[in-house]
Amino acid sequence: MDSLIAAAARALAAGDLMGALNRVALRDDPPALALRGIVVARLGDLDRARGLLRRAARAFGSAEAVAHARCVVAEAEIALVSRDLGAPVDALAGASTVLEAHGDRANAAHARQITIRYLLLLGWLDAAEQALRAFDAATLSPAARAVHELMAAGIAMRRVRAAPAREALERAARAAHAADIPALSAEVEVARAAFDAPAARLVSRGTEDTLPLERVETLLASDTLVVDACRHVVRGPARTIVLAGRPVLFALARTLAEAWPGDAARSRLIAQAFRSKQTDESHRVRLRVEIARLRDELAGLADIHATRDGFALVPAGGLPAAVLAPPVDEAHGAVLALLVDGEAWSSSALALALGSSQRTVQRALDALAAAGRVHAVGRGRARRWLTPPAVGFTTVLLLPGPLPGA
Fold first, then answer.
1. Nearest to 345 by CA among 51, 54, 86, 124
2. How far apart (Å, rounded) are the C-alpha atoms in residues 215 and 390?
3. Radius of gyration of the chain (CA)
4. Residue ranges in 102-246 assigned as alpha helix (H)
5. Residues 119 and 128: beta-carbon distance below 8 Å
6. Low-confidence ranges of the chain (pLDDT < 50)
7. What's the distance, CA 177 to chain centroid?
């Protein structure tokens, strides 16, 4: 490493971005390109940064395996921040192996952490948890340990495990304080605020109540028949029924649970399930068919009795029923749940994270944009979607991931 590159690296480590950039701005050798890429990324020009890092990686080639691997890791982190979830993680695994083999354990661990963050965003919690367990947190630097604990907290929150999430956040706060990095400490505080904020609403017996994560966990562990509108499942003591792909049946289940212990009028059920403001004989016939299908799905958990005015939900064993609803009920909540982090997402990345088609996501984005809830930046393939961070509630239950016990 020549003296100018070394001086630029020291300036970068000290946070002097312009000082580092001034030392390498006119150079096109691989180390200078890599440094410029990192500086430009920190200045916010992510597309240009990725281009510089790709050029550096190609220039390093196989002759400079460690430098090439570091460029791959840096580019993958930029892709993560850009929410380019289609970027392959195989390259990260290879880079981590090379770095570990050459003794660069810090960057090897960083590569594995980026992989876990990809898995978390995609909702692949089992894979993320397995990869996280492979870490020995005691060997990590304070900054890396804080990131490690934030990921552990994220997994626990998505699995609705309040105590492990709280403990991980406390460890993350201590590690961030030891690292003395203000931005990292701020990230931990944002995560702690999300943990403390209402996570869902409980609708039962005609009343509503907001629940923090601990009370959501308690509800799901109880004998209550829970119609979960966050994940579109019905959960009872014996089993969990997934209705995410059957919106009509779920709408009926939710309406019946909201009316419990009374009955729901036929007109209300038709309006909620079929989105129809008018009721005719064809709607009533279809309602009877769908109620029969729902009764079959809920067999063993609950029955559905016909009443004079409509239908009533009767949980097995005389257990109570309740609806677990998102903290804010609105259309396209799953898309908003991902955009609420304040990062810029492409429609393809949103579709990948939600397991939906890109066209469906695009329709949702168009509707949200028309309502002023989101806005786009860039054009064509570079278009990204943003929304201001929501205040006062956490959307953890809207994000992809399995229900506990499912």
1. 86
2. 21
3. 25
4. 105-121, 125-133, 142-158, 162-179, 182-196, 213-221
5. yes
6. 389-406
7. 26
Sign of CA dihedral 289, 291, 293, 299: negative
CB 243 within 8 Å of CB 252? no
Q: State how far the Cα of 289 lies from the Cα of 291, in Å rounded to an integer.
A: 6
309, two tokens: 């005015």
Closest among 257, 250, 255 to 267, alpha carbons compared: 255
Per residue in 251-308, pLDDT (tens digit) is 999 999 999 999 999 999 999 888 877 777 888 899 999 999 999 999 999 999 999 9
Cα–Cα dist 146/331, whole Å: 35
Rounded CA separation 222/241 (Å): 16
Report if residue 356 sits inside a domain: yes
> Helix and strand tally (H, E) in the chain?
18, 11
Statement to judge: residues 69 and 216 lie in one domain: no
Specify the residue for token string 């952490």. Answer: 113
Which residues, other chains included, contact 382 with Cβ-Cβ below 8 Å and sequence gap of 6+? 47
**Shortest CA distance to 291 belongs to which of 278, 310, 316?**
310
Tokens for 179?
């690292």
Domain match, 302 and 353 both: no
Residue 237 lies in a domain: yes
Same domain, 27 and 116: yes
Please, which residues bridge with residue 228 across strands? 233, 324
Residue 322's alpha-carbon distances to 43, 123, 210, 243, in angstroms, are 49, 26, 13, 16
Structure confidence at residue 336 (pLDDT): 72
Last residue of a domain, one of 178, 196, 214: 196
Q: What is the pLDDT of residues 209-246, one digit of tens each?
A: 999 999 999 999 999 999 998 888 999 988 899 998 88
DSSP β-bridge partners for residue 264: 311
Those residues with Cβ within 8 angstroms of residue 69's Cβ, 6 or more apart along the chain or in another chain: 94, 95, 96, 98, 99, 104, 107, 111
> What residue numbers bound the domain in which 376 lies?
333-389
Pair (48, 151) in one structural domain: yes
Strands 321-325 and 225-228: parallel
Residues in the chain: 406
Q: From 178, 320, 298, select the one nearest 250 (Cα to Cα).
A: 298
Is residue 151 domain-resident?
Answer: yes
Strand order in the sheet with 207-211: 207-211, 200-204, 321-325, 225-228, 233-235, 240-242
Please name which of 357, 334, 349 lies closest in space to residue 385, comparing C-alpha atoms: 349
Q: What are phi and psi of 209, to 5 degrees?
A: -150, 140
Q: Kindly report the number of other CB atoms within 10 A of residue 291's CB atom.
A: 20
